[in-house]
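Weekly modeling sync, notes
Attendees: S.R. (lead), two postdocs, one rotation student

Agenda item 3: backlog of single-chain predictions. S.R. asked that every request posted to the team notebook include the full sequence so nobody has to chase files. The rotation student volunteered to paste the first one in as an example of the format we agreed on. Action items at the bottom.

Example entry:
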Amino acid sequence: MFEEIYRESRQRTVGLAMGLSAEDLARTVPACPEWTVHQLIAHLAGAASDFTTGRMEGAPSQEWTARHVAERENVPVIELLEQWNADGARVDELERIPFQLAMDVITHEADLRGVLGRERLPDAVWQPTLTWTAVRRLPEVTAKTDFGEFGDGPITLEVDGYELWRAFFGRRSRRQMESWSWSGPAPIEKISFFPPRDTDLVE
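Predicted structure, as returned to the notebook:
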Protein backbone atom coordinates (compact mmCIF):
# COMPACT_ATOMS: atom_id res chain seq x y z
CA MET A 1 0.00 0.00 0.00
CA PHE A 2 2.65 2.53 1.01
CA GLU A 3 4.77 2.09 -2.12
CA GLU A 4 1.79 2.93 -4.34
CA ILE A 5 0.75 5.83 -2.10
CA TYR A 6 4.23 7.34 -2.29
CA ARG A 7 4.61 6.97 -6.06
CA GLU A 8 1.21 8.39 -6.95
CA SER A 9 1.46 11.26 -4.47
CA ARG A 10 4.87 12.23 -5.83
CA GLN A 11 3.48 12.30 -9.35
CA ARG A 12 0.49 14.43 -8.33
CA THR A 13 2.59 16.81 -6.25
CA VAL A 14 5.12 17.33 -9.03
CA GLY A 15 2.20 18.12 -11.32
CA LEU A 16 0.85 20.67 -8.84
CA ALA A 17 4.23 22.34 -8.45
CA MET A 18 5.20 22.55 -12.11
CA GLY A 19 4.84 26.05 -13.47
CA LEU A 20 4.13 27.78 -10.17
CA SER A 21 4.92 31.48 -10.17
CA ALA A 22 7.55 33.09 -7.98
CA GLU A 23 4.70 34.54 -5.95
CA ASP A 24 3.20 31.09 -5.38
CA LEU A 25 6.55 29.61 -4.42
CA ALA A 26 7.09 32.37 -1.86
CA ARG A 27 3.74 31.78 -0.14
CA THR A 28 3.83 30.68 3.47
CA VAL A 29 2.21 27.27 3.91
CA PRO A 30 -0.46 27.63 6.64
CA ALA A 31 -0.25 23.95 7.61
CA CYS A 32 3.50 24.27 8.28
CA PRO A 33 4.01 28.03 8.66
CA GLU A 34 7.77 27.82 9.11
CA TRP A 35 8.02 26.95 5.38
CA THR A 36 7.21 28.53 2.06
CA VAL A 37 5.98 26.44 -0.87
CA HIS A 38 9.54 26.33 -2.23
CA GLN A 39 10.85 25.09 1.11
CA LEU A 40 8.17 22.42 1.34
CA ILE A 41 9.24 21.08 -2.05
CA ALA A 42 12.88 21.25 -0.94
CA HIS A 43 12.04 19.02 2.02
CA LEU A 44 10.27 16.45 -0.17
CA ALA A 45 13.22 16.33 -2.56
CA GLY A 46 15.63 16.13 0.35
CA ALA A 47 13.78 13.30 2.07
CA ALA A 48 13.84 11.18 -1.10
CA SER A 49 17.53 11.91 -1.60
CA ASP A 50 18.38 10.99 1.97
CA PHE A 51 16.37 7.79 1.82
CA THR A 52 18.06 6.58 -1.36
CA THR A 53 21.56 7.45 -0.09
CA GLY A 54 21.04 6.20 3.46
CA ARG A 55 21.53 9.63 4.99
CA MET A 56 18.90 9.09 7.65
CA GLU A 57 20.70 10.23 10.80
CA GLY A 58 18.27 12.21 12.92
CA ALA A 59 15.19 11.40 10.83
CA PRO A 60 12.45 12.55 11.18
CA SER A 61 13.54 15.34 13.52
CA GLN A 62 13.19 19.05 12.84
CA GLU A 63 16.95 19.24 12.40
CA TRP A 64 16.79 16.59 9.66
CA THR A 65 14.05 18.37 7.72
CA ALA A 66 15.67 21.77 8.28
CA ARG A 67 18.82 20.48 6.59
CA HIS A 68 16.83 19.58 3.48
CA VAL A 69 15.60 23.15 3.26
CA ALA A 70 18.94 24.80 4.04
CA GLU A 71 20.88 22.73 1.50
CA ARG A 72 18.40 23.59 -1.26
CA GLU A 73 17.66 27.21 -0.41
CA ASN A 74 18.90 28.57 -3.75
CA VAL A 75 17.99 25.62 -5.97
CA PRO A 76 15.29 26.49 -8.54
CA VAL A 77 12.09 24.57 -8.03
CA ILE A 78 12.31 22.91 -11.46
CA GLU A 79 15.65 21.38 -10.41
CA LEU A 80 14.16 20.25 -7.09
CA LEU A 81 11.34 18.50 -8.93
CA GLU A 82 13.78 16.85 -11.32
CA GLN A 83 15.88 15.65 -8.37
CA TRP A 84 12.80 14.35 -6.59
CA ASN A 85 11.61 12.51 -9.69
CA ALA A 86 15.03 10.88 -10.14
CA ASP A 87 15.35 9.82 -6.49
CA GLY A 88 11.66 9.00 -6.29
CA ALA A 89 11.98 6.62 -9.22
CA ARG A 90 14.62 4.72 -7.23
CA VAL A 91 12.28 4.63 -4.24
CA ASP A 92 9.53 3.29 -6.52
CA GLU A 93 11.73 0.31 -7.43
CA LEU A 94 11.97 -0.87 -3.84
CA GLU A 95 9.73 -3.69 -2.66
CA ARG A 96 9.08 -1.97 0.63
CA ILE A 97 9.36 1.59 1.93
CA PRO A 98 8.76 2.92 5.47
CA PHE A 99 5.19 3.99 6.09
CA GLN A 100 6.58 7.28 7.43
CA LEU A 101 7.86 8.24 3.98
CA ALA A 102 4.47 7.66 2.37
CA MET A 103 2.62 9.45 5.16
CA ASP A 104 4.99 12.40 4.89
CA VAL A 105 4.44 12.90 1.18
CA ILE A 106 0.64 12.71 1.27
CA THR A 107 0.53 15.01 4.30
CA HIS A 108 2.58 17.60 2.44
CA GLU A 109 0.56 17.08 -0.72
CA ALA A 110 -2.49 18.04 1.34
CA ASP A 111 -0.57 21.05 2.72
CA LEU A 112 0.31 22.17 -0.80
CA ARG A 113 -3.24 21.77 -2.06
CA GLY A 114 -4.41 23.94 0.82
CA VAL A 115 -2.04 26.84 0.20
CA LEU A 116 -2.69 26.78 -3.55
CA GLY A 117 -6.47 26.62 -3.14
CA ARG A 118 -6.75 23.31 -4.98
CA GLU A 119 -9.31 20.59 -4.28
CA ARG A 120 -8.76 18.38 -1.27
CA LEU A 121 -6.60 15.26 -1.39
CA PRO A 122 -8.63 12.42 -2.99
CA ASP A 123 -10.53 10.33 -0.43
CA ALA A 124 -9.09 7.09 -1.82
CA VAL A 125 -5.62 8.27 -0.77
CA TRP A 126 -6.10 9.32 2.85
CA GLN A 127 -8.98 7.10 3.98
CA PRO A 128 -7.02 3.80 4.03
CA THR A 129 -4.15 5.47 5.88
CA LEU A 130 -6.58 6.93 8.42
CA THR A 131 -7.99 3.52 9.25
CA TRP A 132 -4.48 2.02 9.44
CA THR A 133 -3.31 4.82 11.74
CA ALA A 134 -6.36 5.13 13.98
CA VAL A 135 -6.50 1.51 15.14
CA ARG A 136 -2.83 1.73 16.09
CA ARG A 137 -2.80 5.18 17.70
CA LEU A 138 -6.20 5.05 19.41
CA PRO A 139 -6.98 1.46 20.47
CA GLU A 140 -9.34 2.77 23.16
CA VAL A 141 -11.51 4.61 20.61
CA THR A 142 -14.32 3.60 18.30
CA ALA A 143 -14.35 6.23 15.56
CA LYS A 144 -17.56 6.98 13.70
CA THR A 145 -16.80 8.92 10.54
CA ASP A 146 -18.58 9.97 7.40
CA PHE A 147 -17.14 6.98 5.49
CA GLY A 148 -17.55 4.28 8.11
CA GLU A 149 -16.81 3.09 11.63
CA PHE A 150 -13.55 1.54 12.79
CA GLY A 151 -11.94 0.54 16.07
CA ASP A 152 -13.64 -1.15 19.01
CA GLY A 153 -12.61 0.88 22.03
CA PRO A 154 -14.94 1.98 24.85
CA ILE A 155 -14.69 5.69 23.96
CA THR A 156 -16.77 6.74 20.97
CA LEU A 157 -15.65 9.59 18.74
CA GLU A 158 -17.93 11.05 16.08
CA VAL A 159 -15.82 13.11 13.71
CA ASP A 160 -15.28 14.04 10.08
CA GLY A 161 -12.73 11.53 8.82
CA TYR A 162 -10.54 14.11 7.08
CA GLU A 163 -10.34 16.19 10.25
CA LEU A 164 -9.09 13.20 12.21
CA TRP A 165 -6.60 12.29 9.51
CA ARG A 166 -5.13 15.79 9.45
CA ALA A 167 -4.96 15.84 13.24
CA PHE A 168 -2.78 12.73 13.29
CA PHE A 169 -0.07 14.73 11.53
CA GLY A 170 -0.20 17.87 13.65
CA ARG A 171 -2.55 19.88 11.42
CA ARG A 172 -5.22 20.56 14.05
CA SER A 173 -5.03 22.41 17.35
CA ARG A 174 -5.83 20.99 20.76
CA ARG A 175 -8.94 23.18 20.84
CA GLN A 176 -10.15 21.74 17.54
CA MET A 177 -9.63 18.15 18.69
CA GLU A 178 -11.33 18.76 22.04
CA SER A 179 -14.35 20.19 20.20
CA TRP A 180 -15.11 16.87 18.51
CA SER A 181 -17.91 14.67 19.84
CA TRP A 182 -16.31 12.41 22.44
CA SER A 183 -18.29 10.00 24.65
CA GLY A 184 -15.63 9.99 27.33
CA PRO A 185 -12.20 11.42 28.22
CA ALA A 186 -10.55 12.46 24.98
CA PRO A 187 -7.04 10.97 24.53
CA ILE A 188 -5.78 14.12 22.83
CA GLU A 189 -2.14 13.39 23.64
CA LYS A 190 -2.27 10.13 21.69
CA ILE A 191 -3.68 11.53 18.48
CA SER A 192 -0.86 13.41 16.82
CA PHE A 193 2.57 12.12 15.90
CA PHE A 194 3.66 15.74 16.39
CA PRO A 195 2.64 18.40 18.93
CA PRO A 196 -0.78 19.94 18.18
CA ARG A 197 -0.84 23.32 16.50
CA ASP A 198 -1.04 26.42 18.69
CA THR A 199 -3.64 27.94 16.35
CA ASP A 200 -6.62 26.48 14.55
CA LEU A 201 -6.24 25.38 10.94
CA VAL A 202 -9.46 25.30 8.93
CA GLU A 203 -9.32 23.69 5.50
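Discussion: group reviewed the output briefly. The chain has a mean pLDDT of 93.
Action items: rotation student to repeat for the remaining queue; S.R. to check formatting next week.
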